[in-house]
Amino acid sequence: MEISSKENTHFFSNDTILPMDRSSFKSESSASKEKQSCCGGIKIFLGALSFVYFAKALSGSYLKSTITQIERRFDIPSSLVGVIDGSFEIGNLLIIILVSYFGAKLHRPRIIGAGCLIMSAGTFLIAMPQFFMGRYRYERFPSTINSTVSISPCLQDKSQTPLSALEKSQAKINAGCEKEAGSSMWIYVLLGNLLRGIGETPIQPLGITYIDDYAVEENAALYIGCVQTVAIIGPIFGFLLGSLCAKLYVDIGFVDLDSVTISPKDAQWVGAWWLGYLIAGVISVLAGIPFWFLPKHLPKPESRKDSSTSSEQSKFIMEENKDRCSSYQQQAKLAEMAKDFLPSLKNLFGNPVYILYLCASTIQFNSLIGMVTYKPKYIEQQYGQTSSKTNFVIGLINIPAVAFGIFSGGLIMKKFRIGVLGAAKLSLGSSFFGYLLLLSLFAMGCENSDVAGLTVSYHGTKPVTDYEQALFSECNSGCSCSKNDWDPICGENGVTYVSACLAGCQASNSSGQNTVFFNCSCVGTFESSQSSSAVVGPCQKGNECPKMFLYFLVISVITSYTLSVGGTPGYILLLRCIKPHLKSFALGIYTLAIRVLAGIPAPVYFGVAIDTTCLKWGSKRCGGRGACRLYDSSALRYVYLGLTLVLGTVSIFFSVAVLWVLRKRSSPQDETLSANGERGACGTKSRKDNFVNSDQLIQSTYWPEKETRL
C-alpha cells in the first residue's frame, strides 16, 4: 500500500508539474524572443543613429574646411563668412524647443529621417551657386592665359593694344557686370547652412531619448557612448574630404584644366568646394533612409517593464484607453509644470556655481569656436600652406588629439575616483595649461613675405604708411597700371610684385603657369637684384617658415589635447552642482547659452578682427571690395591668438571663482556641497555618489559642437 501510494503520489505530482513546466518553458521562450526582438531593434536604431551622427559631423566639419574657398569664390570678407558659419546655430535655435517638446509625442524615428532629408537639402543648396554663377574668373595678365595677342605687361601707351582686343576686353567686363548679381549668391550658402541647422535639430534630443527609453538600462550608457565616438570620426573624414576637394580646381569638369594659370599656392586659387557638399548631401540622404522603416515603439526590455520611471515619450502621450479623468489630471500636471517654470528658473540662476560655470563655459566656447573657425585661414596665411595641406593636417592630427583628450578626461576621473571639487580642479588645470601653451604660439610665426609696395618698398626698405600710394614708384611710373589688380609675380630677387605691370616688366614669353617676364625695371632696381626677370605666382615664405610650421603643429596638438581633457570633468561638474529635478532644464539653458552667446557671434567678430589685418583687398569686376588677397602676418598672429587668449584668460577667472565657491561650500571630511543650508542641492548623499561611475562618463562626453572643437 505504501509503495502504491508513493507511486500514485509520484504520478500525481508529475501530472501537476508537467503543465507548469510547459507554461514556464513557453514564457521563457517568448521572453527570449522578445528580448532578441528588442535587442535587434535597438541595435538597428543604434547603427542608423551612429551613421547620422557621422553624416552631420562630416558636413559640419567640411564647412569649416571650406571657409577660405567660399570667401574667395564669392569675393566676400571674413566677417560675412562668419555670419554664414553662424547661420547653422540660428537654424538650430529656430525649432529646438518645438522639436524637443512635441517630438516625444510623434514618431521619433521618422522625425529624425525627415531631419536628415532637410539637412541634405540644405547641403545641396550650399553647392547650387556653383552651377548658376558661371565660371570662376581670376585676375591674370592676358599673356598668361594663352592669348594670341602679344601685349607688354607695362602698358606705356594704350595704343599698344589692338582696338579689337580692347573692345573685347571691355565687352567681357560689361558682360561680367551684368552677371555681377551672381556675387550675392552667398545668400544661398547662408540659407543652406540655415536648413542644415534645422534638419540637425531632432537628431540629438530624439535619438538619445529613444535609445534611453528602449535599451536595457545597463547598456544605455554604452550605446550613447558608441554614438558619440562615431561622431568624433565624422570630422576626420570631413577635413580629409576638404583636403581632397581643395586640390581640385573649382571648375573641374567644366573647363580645360591646361588653361588654368594659377596653382593651389596662389591666393586666388579656389578648390572644388561644391563637390564635397554634394557628397555630404548624398551621405545625409542615405543616413535618413533606415529611420522611415523603424517602428514608433520598440518592445520594452523585461528589466524596465516594472520600472517606476517612465520614458520621456510616456510622459506626454496619452494612451487610447485612458479616461477623461486621467486626461484632466495630465492637463493639470502640465499647467502645474508651466506654473513652476519661473520658480525653477529663479532657483537655477540663484545657484552661484551654475551661473559662474555657465559664464566660464560661454566665454571659453567663444574662444574655441572663433579659433577653430579661422584656424585653416590662419595656417594658410601665416605659414604659406595650401588649403589642401591645411585641412589634411587638421583632420589627421588635431581632431584625433581632441578625441583622445576627451577620453583621457573621463578615464582620469574614473581611475582616481574624482569628486565634484576634483572635477573643478581638473577642468581649471586643463584650461590654464592649455592657454599657457597657446601663449607660446606667439613666438612661432612667420615674418611677412616681401611684397613690393606693401611690406617692403621697391628699394628694399620698409614701406610708407600709405600702402596704396606705395604701390607706385619711379620704376613703374611710365606704366599704365591699376592699383586694384592682384596678379602676383616672383622676381629673381625673391620679392613678390602685385602685378607684372607694377614690376615694370616690358616683355614676356610662353604662356600659362610657365610664363616668364623680362626687363622688369622694378626688379632690377632692388638692392639685392642681379637680374630683372620674374615668374608667375608669389614667392615662397622665408626659409625658417617650414620649421616654424612644424613647431606650430606640435604645440597645437598638445594644446588641443590639454584643453579637451577638461571637457568631461566640466560636464560632470555641471550635472552635480544642480538639483536632480532641474538637470534637464539646466542642460537646456546651458546649450541655449552656448549657441546664442558663442556659436553665433564668435565667428562674426573674429572675422571682423581678422579683416583689420588685411594689406591688399581684391576688387570685384564692377568695383567694390572683394576678398582679402594678402594679410599682415604679424598683425594676424597677434589678433587671432590674442583674441583667443584674452577670452580664455577671462574664462579662467570665472573657473577660479567656481572653485572658490565650491571650496567655501565643501567640508574637510568630504567634497560634498550644500545649497541653502541642506545637503544634496549641489552635493551627494553618500560617498559612493560622489564618485563618477562608468555610465556617467560615457553619457557626459557631449557638449555643443564637440565634434569640431580643435
TrEMBL record:
Transmembrane intervals: 40-59, 80-104, 110-132, 220-250, 270-294, 354-372, 392-412, 424-444, 548-575, 587-610, 639-662
GO cellular component, one term: basolateral plasma membrane
Its membrane topology: Multi-pass membrane protein
Protein's cellular compartments: Cell membrane
Catalytic activity: L-thyroxine sulfate(out) = L-thyroxine sulfate(in); L-thyroxine(out) = L-thyroxine(in); 3,3',5'-triiodo-L-thyronine(out) = 3,3',5'-triiodo-L-thyronine(in)
Gene3D superfamilies referenced in this protein's UniProt entry, alphabetically: 3.30.60.30, MFS general substrate transporter like domains (1.20.1250.20)
Entry's Gene Ontology molecular function annotations: bile acid transmembrane transporter activity; sodium-independent organic anion transmembrane transporter activity
SUPFAM superfamilies: Kazal-type serine protease inhibitors, MFS general substrate transporter
GO biological process, one term: sodium-independent organic anion transport
Residues of the Kazal-like domain: 469-524
Major subcellular site: membrane
Annotated region described as Disordered, given as residue ranges: 300-322
Key words of the record: Cell membrane, Disulfide bond, Glycoprotein, Ion transport, Lipid transport, Membrane, Transmembrane, Transmembrane helix, Transport
Domain Major facilitator superfamily (MFS) profile: 45-666
PANTHER family assigned: ORGANIC ANION TRANSPORTER, SOLUTE CARRIER ORGANIC ANION TRANSPORTER FAMILY MEMBER 1C1
Record-stated family: Belongs to the organo anion transporter (TC 2.A.60) family.
Name assigned to this protein: Solute carrier organic anion transporter family member
Protein species of origin: Eulacestoma nigropectus
